[in-house]
Amino acid sequence: MPPITTRLSGSGLAFGGDYNPEQWPEEVWADDMALMREAGVTMVSVGVFSWALLEPAPGVYDFGWLDRLLALLHEHGIAVDLGTPTTVPPAWFYQRHPEALPVTKDGQRLAFGGRGAICHSSPAYREAATAVTTRLAERYADHPALAMWHVHNEYGAPVSECYCDISAEDFRRWLRERHQTLDALNEAWGTTFWGQRYSDWAQIQPPRRTPTAGNPGQQLDFKRFTSDAMLANFTAERDILHRLSVGVPVTTNFMTALSQCRSVDYWAWGREVDVVSNDHYLVAEAERTHVNLAMSADITRSVAGGAPWLLLEHSTGAVNWQPRNIAKRPGEMARNSLSHVARGSDGAMFFQWRASRFGAEKFHSTMLPHAGTDSRIWREVVRLGADLGRLAEIQGSRVRPDVAVLWDWHSWWAEDMEWRPTEDHSADERADAWYEALYDRHLTVDFAHPEAELAAYPLVVVPSLYLMTEAASANLRRYVEQGGVLVVSYFSGIVDATDTVHPGAHPGALRDVLGLTVEEFLPLRAGRQVALSGDAAMTGGGLLSGDVWTETVVPRGADTVWRYADGPAAGGPAVTRHALGAGHAWYVSTRLAPADLDRVLALASQDTRLDDREDLPRDVEIVHREGEQGSYLFAINHTAAETKVPLPVPGTELLTGERTVGRLCVPVGGVRVVRLDREPGDEPRG
């Protein structure tokens, strides 16, 4: 189901960032207002870390400074995304309730002094958090500056799991609701193995440190419980805001990049927010940071059910918490921002407005840097604000996707446990690799839950789906039989929702749709590679190269496209194609080199109705947004050379006002956005 999406009030795209004026003397606020107006700021996030100021002592509230701040922002035409400050309880709270600090798997209780140090099962935390949220809602529900409520901050980062006794009791309650009986739990967890059977609910603990590998079913359920425990705290605050501040949308900032947050089931969370919002920070040392950015944006849009979403945080330059905090080069900040907008964000927000002089993030880049207004970053911020103003009409339009990638956080959690066939295989690495291959084919990706409706996509890719339910299996079979093209990577369809192997030969949930069985996993030694040879008439000849993983594949109706030329599976099928109903299912049983992965996708794409886009240059991304006011083509040039992009119809380039016909010129490192002319009778898609 898509989320309940409430469009932000006002017109145009949101531009601004976290504003923490409590870090500065109040006389600085007037300067901030003038500079925000100069930069074209339309919205700021306020109060996210302000609990200790708003409630300096238990039950004692001080809203005077916030009253003055919101009045000043409203006077200057700047909307407010008002935070509930529940990510950092005050020191007095932990003095009263030290038990609310989280405990690690090894039994160490973390200390106050950072942020997000919360046991999400703590009744004391829930009571204090809902109390301060209630007081905020009562005071500011009808404030004219209020555009959106922002609950907490980045749930799951930096701490999500807690293994304390309070969490243990809450985990047992959650398990009773999920499994109903101990017999059902013992069956789901396979507790007859290693004599782990439970005869009393009180015997069950969180999966704390054990002498060897712990029970996988227990670990998987604890991951689910942790996501649900955090979600329960979010919905408790959200429900208060809905009741007291009717009609004002409520969000919390996700972190959908797979490298940034592993502990939240965003498919479930996306249904609970009014506006899906996201924080994204580049993996600064990566060579092609724009690919991970696009992937995070596509995941976020997909969690939003295809609806517009909001980039609530990213950086103008370097962050300060990576091993090497690489600064963005000239033009990169605008290019990053507009890439998010191209992929569905209705704005570009930053952390934060003014650089901090103290605290842990004083070297984190900001909109107004330590260097002040006589700086490259400030000039680029002002230019970006003007450009977003020129793109106001794009608000509310939707991205037109080409293909779907299946992803499931539950499967990732299950696959990421110990004692798998090889430590060299990683589900998120495979997702990154397959996404990059699709990106390089200039295909816009939707991510989808394995049980979601897939009929609209000519191509569906499964990079890694170790855990697959019977419902997902039936869904994929139906998709292929009705004419879809499915491409599946190895170690998918292996276990059910309890991490129990599907009966029979691997891949149990995918045997029928793939038309094959896997007799044995044959992982490779570190650094070893295998060669794959294909039928020249079908593949064009030449060898492919794989590493990490091979298998003994037995066709049961599938055709062999490439075989292993050497290695432990020599002579056996490596890549197969199975005709099923009106569609085809492809299987790739090794980790292919990037160029070889592209060759497989090229062949699979021939089974689809996808357009050939090989004339577009590498690292020039083309994305379409469509809405009531127009159809928009974004062309983003991440290269060091000017490029020309073919236009399907003439149009008007919104950033320059120029008319464009035939081919669009995109400058080095630049972005162009064209409102395409519509032919008579054309209707917006999506």
List keywords for this structure.
alpha/beta; 10-stranded mixed beta sheet; 20% strand; TIM Barrel; Rossmann fold; single chain; 3 domains; 686 residues; 9-stranded parallel beta sheet; Immunoglobulin-like
SSE diagram, text form:
Layout: E1 14-19, H1 28-39, E2 43-46, H2 51-54, H3 64-75, E3 79-84, H4 91-96, H5 123-140, E4 146-151, H6 165-179, H7 182-189, H8 216-244, E5 250-251, E6 253-254, H9 266-270, E7 277-279, H10 289-303, E8 309-313, H11 332-342, E9 345-350, H12 376-390, E10 398-399, E11 403-406, H13 409-415, H14 427-440, E12 445-448, E13 459-462, H15 470-481, E14 485-489, H16 511-514, E15 516-521, E16 529-534, H17 536-539, E17 543-547, E18 551-555, E19 559-564, E20 573-580, E21 583-588, E22 591-592, H18 594-605, E23 620-627, E24 630-637, E25 643-646, E26 651-653, E27 659-660, E28 663-666, E29 671-676
Helix pairs in contact: 5-8, 11-12, 14-18
How does this structure look, described?
By secondary structure, the protein is an alpha/beta fold. The chain has 18 helices and 29 strands. It folds into 3 domains: 14-165 and 250-396, TIM Barrel (Alpha-Beta Barrel); 403-605, Class I glutamine amidotransferase (GATase) domain (Rossmann fold, 3-Layer(aba) Sandwich), CATH 3.40.50; 620-676, Golgi alpha-mannosidase II (Immunoglobulin-like, Sandwich). The strands form 5 sheets. A 10-stranded mixed beta sheet has the order 12-11-13-14-21-20-19-16-17-22, with helices on both faces. A 9-stranded parallel beta sheet has the order 5-4-3-2-1-9-8-7-6, with helices on one face. A 6-stranded antiparallel beta sheet has the order 10-23-24-29-26-27. The protein is globular, with a radius of gyration of 26 Å. The two termini are 16 Å apart. Mean pLDDT is 95; it is low at 1-7.
